[in-house]
Amino acid sequence: MNTDFFVLAIAALIFAVLIVFLKQQNKEIGMLAAIVGGIFILIYIIKYAAASFDFINELVRATKLPNDSILILIKALGIAYLTQFICELCKDVGEGALASKLEIAGKLTILVISIPLFTKILELITSSLG
Amino acid sequence: MKKIFLIFIFMLLFCIQANAEDISDILKEQYKNANISELERKLPNNVRNDLSNIADEKITPENIGKALDFNNIFSFILKNLANVFKKESKIFIFIIIIVIISMLFESLFNSLANKSLENVSNIAIALCLISVIFVSLNDSIKSSADTINQMVVFSKALIPVMCGLMVGTGQPASAAVFNSFLFIACQLCTAISESVLLPLVNVYFALIIADSVIVGVKLNNFTDFLKKMLTWGVGLLFSVFVGIMSLQSILSGAADGIAKRTVKFAVGSMIPVAGGVLGEAMETVFSCANSIKATTGVFGIVVILLIVLVPLLTVFVKYIIFKFSSFVAASLGSEKISLMLSNISSAFAILLSITLGTSILLIVSFSIIISSGVPK
Predict the structure, then answer these.
(1) What pLDDT digit, counting tens, does each position of B259-305 carry?
(2) Second label for B281, Cα 20 to 30 Å away, from B7, B112, B115, B329?
(3) What is residue B247's predicted lDDT score, i.e. its pLDDT?
(4) Which residues does chain A have within 8 Å of residue B130's beta carbon, measured at their own beta carbons?
(5) Is B112 helix (H, G, I), strand (E, B) or coil?
């Protein structure tokens, strides 16, 4: 894991130098390099995150409690990370308006995937009242 | 002289054999008359099993003195506590998982200047916690209501038996007072607990949910006020009941003491020759009735304790789990979840005080009945 992070840090540094160099030569290619660099780092982060989610899944399985709500939370976490990451990328390439629209989409997606939790709580409340 | 001698011979010829009655016979007779077997039929099923399991032999009012042993009781409580802890510890792991996920969310938002997704994520975390906690709290509220109901149903069966035994010990005034007072106390206990206190716990929980889900609304002060009102209300209600009952027992006890002495004096002075012996025999019968009253009362208290034991332990363990989870969340830096868990642990504390308060009220009432009329 430590070696992986070392590779990631070096890759980020190389990408940074490359982007600065490319931006001087050609702005469009520089932006493209920034996006590729971002996606490369994102893929590495997902690899890291998968290991911690496996650990969380193991814990949930050990409790034998329904894991659907935890799955929703993990999905929300993934969406939040992805949204923020892409938003930052969009801002980097000067597309602030697109970033703010993506944020709204991210918020809505988290709300939509949380709807089963709302309905579950409503069902619990109505069953306890009835 | 001759006449006196003839009368003496005549008396010797027609005298009948008289033996002092064995106390155990009197006890058996009184147990039979007190209709205690009817009481055993009113026991809840789980308590009937517990009474068979807690000691080597099944606990009944007749053998409660021999069967009850401190080691047995202690190991029984520990066994139940371990079972409850094993069952409820899953919630703790679940909460810790959610705290870990919330930490991941927080680490994301802390590393970024833009925190626009934070509120939505907090709502998702709060909903996830509530979906699990709601089931746990709702189960506890239902179980507390059932426990109070079971205690009251059993107490309603025990009150006439105990009051009948009080009349047998020469305390008719106390029996009349306790009979009506305990019935009123039982009715009020169920009415107040089921119609006021338990719904208020639900309201308290709803406010905690609203406080944690709705962004920008601070209901903390109101939930604190409601918590204080509930705990004060429970304490005041039960203190007033026990206080009035203690005063009533002193007053009616004095009246019974006068009546008892009057009857003993009347028997001793108005019945010629055997009056004194009959007075002493009356005292023996009263003592036997007192002994039965004590064993039946202790049996009743043990049954109430067994009814309340598992639900009380469950609520207590949940309270500890939520309090501990709150400390863990606070130490991991998740202040919002910590506050929410702390508030929910308070809801369990209120439930604990309602159930414990009702059981203590009934136990103290029966203890007053047991101790009243016991010769000092």
Answers:
(1) 777 777 777 777 766 667 777 777 777 777 777 888 888 888 888 99
(2) B7
(3) 80
(4) 121
(5) coil
Residue to substitute from B89, B92, B100, B104, interface A, most A β-carbons within 10 A: B104
Quick check: B112 contacting A, CB < 8 Å?
A: yes
Task: Measure the CA–CA gap between B271 and B273, rounded to whole angstroms.
Answer: 7
Helix (H) or strand (E) holding B143: helix B118-168
CA distance B98 to chain A (A): 7
Contact check, Cβ <8 Å, B105/A77: yes
Question: Rounded to two decimals, what is the model's pTM?
Answer: 0.77
Round to whole Å and give the CA distance between B319 and B313.
Answer: 10
Question: What is d(CA B348, CA B354) in angstroms, rounded to the nearest whole number?
Answer: 10
Cβ A70–B101 below 8 Å, yes or no? yes
Residue A52's contacts (CB-CB under 8 Å, 6 or more residues apart) are B104
Residues B28-56 pLDDT 10s: 666 666 667 777 777 888 888 887 777 77
Q: Which residues of A touch B121 (CB under 8 A)?
A: 76-77, 80, 110
Binding-face residues of A in 7-46 toward B, CB within 8 A: none
Nearest-angstrom CA–CA distance, B132 and B136? 7
Percentage with pLDDT > 70 across chain B? 86
Instruction: Note whether A124 contacts B121, CB cutoff 8 Å.
Output: no
B338, two tokens: 């910590």
Q: State the ipTM, two decimals.
A: 0.72
Interface contact A92, partner B, CB < 8 A? no
Min Cα separation B30/chain A (Å): 47
Distance CA B35, CA B53 (A): 24
